[in-house]
Amino acid sequence: MAKSYLKRNKLINYLEENRSIYIFTTVLLIMGVIFGAVIINSMSFSQKNDLYAYLTLFFSEVDKGEFANPQEIFTQSFAYYSKMLGFIWLLGLSVIGLPIVFILLFIKGLMVGFTVGFLVDQMGFEGFLFAFVSVFPQNIILIPIFILVASAASSFSIKIWRQIVSRGHQPIFQQFTSYTLFILLVGGILVGVSAFEAFVSPALMQFIVEKVL
């Protein structure tokens, strides 16, 4: 009982200590989503047509069930997320890597906003339905994950910076261990996200294409 209380109290103190970082990263990602959606309006008619032609080709392949092997999709998806996760972890170990963490988070939001915005702009409600099954499910998990990872990397990077500036000699190994274990835990969650993208998402997309589009 006492241990669970101490753990909960420690978590609350951690969140309070890093509240500004979490707010900043959340706002940054939301700005990326908004900016990605706004980009659609600045595209020329020919650019939209070119993208829509690729999208139509993709829909025809989905309708025929011409997906890559699920195991191959899983491998590619998990490899992509693992590389990005590892890159953010590495950036968190250096003070100069902090701006790049923020840029990556903004780009993640931009990609989501652009994808959903383009589908809705070109296809209306049908595009929203397709985005709902192909973009939203995994990003409900991915977006909070990237916010948490970016915040953890930022927090650890700031601690290193404070150590350098104050020329302190406090041991930082414990924080490094916690930071690394958290990243590994997130990696385990990404296995589930990759499995969803490989084995569930294709079936949902095919269903929408066949029944709605």
Structural description of this entry:
- This protein has helices at 2-17, 19-42, 45-63, 70-92, 98-123, 125-134, 136-166, 173-199, 201-211.
- The chain has 213 residues and is mainly α.
- The protein has one domain (2-211).
- The protein contains 9 helices and no strands.
Total strands: the figure is 0
SSE ordering: HHHHHHHHH
Summed over residues and divided by their number, the pLDDT gives a mean of 84
> In percent terms, what proportion of residues is strand?
under 5%
Global Rg? 20 Å
The structure class reads mainly alpha
Percent of residues in helices comes to over 70%
Oligomer: single chain
- The figure for the number of domains is 1
The residue ranges in which pLDDT falls below 50 over 5 or more consecutive positions are: none
Please give the count of helices.
9
Main sheet characteristics? none
Distance between the termini: 55 Å
* Shape by Cα distribution: elongated
Features:
single chain, about 210 residues, mainly alpha, 9 helices
Outline of this structure?
With 213 residues, the protein is mostly helical. The protein has helices spanning 2-17, 19-42, 45-63, 70-92, 98-123, 125-134, 136-166, 173-199, 201-211.
